[in-house]
Design brief:
The protein is mainly beta and 135 residues long. Helices cover 12% and strands 50% of the residues. The N and C termini lie far apart (60 Å). The N terminus is likely disordered.
């Protein structure tokens, strides 16, 4: 006669083993609002000042990015907003208008621009943590 506990133990062990897999990575942040700033090179202007704000709460993860193109007579700001997600070490931004941006989260809290597949860009720029980012 078979041991009935062996029948129950088999699925229970499989369930425990599947639960022991590595948890999905979480961004190393603790605030509901995180902010980065930086400057990037520009072919048609003096520089591009960038402010990126990530927020999360109420089941949503939203971003707002303001890029100000610095010109001799002032600046021209452009705003992009949408959803963000953390995928391994990459922060992926999907704009409400369909734009896609990818940043690598470095160990010290900086963000480094990346290609969509996560590979390094030739002319990558970095954003420095300003608020809410664990370093």
């Amino acid at each position: 006669m078979r041991n009935p506990t062996g029948i129950v133990a088999g699925p229970a062990i499989l369930l425990l083993l599947s639960a022991c897999g590595s948890p999905s990575p979480e961004p190393p942040v603790q605030a509901e609002r995180m902010e980065w700033q930086g400057m990037q090179h520009c072919a048609d202007c003096d520089a591009i000042d960038t402010v990126l704000v990530l927020s999360h709460g109420d089941g949503e993860q939203r971003f707002e990015m303001i890029e100000t193109y610095r010109l001799d007579g002032g600046g021209e700001p452009f705003t992009d907003a949408g959803a963000w997600r953390y995928d391994d070490t990459l922060v992926r931004l999907q704009g409400d208008d369909g734009s896609l941006r990818t940043y690598l989260l470095l160990g010290d809290g900086r963000l480094q621009s990346r290609q969509a597949d996560g590979r390094a860009e030739r002319a990558a720029h970095e954003l420095q943590p300003v608020a809410g980012v664990t370093q």
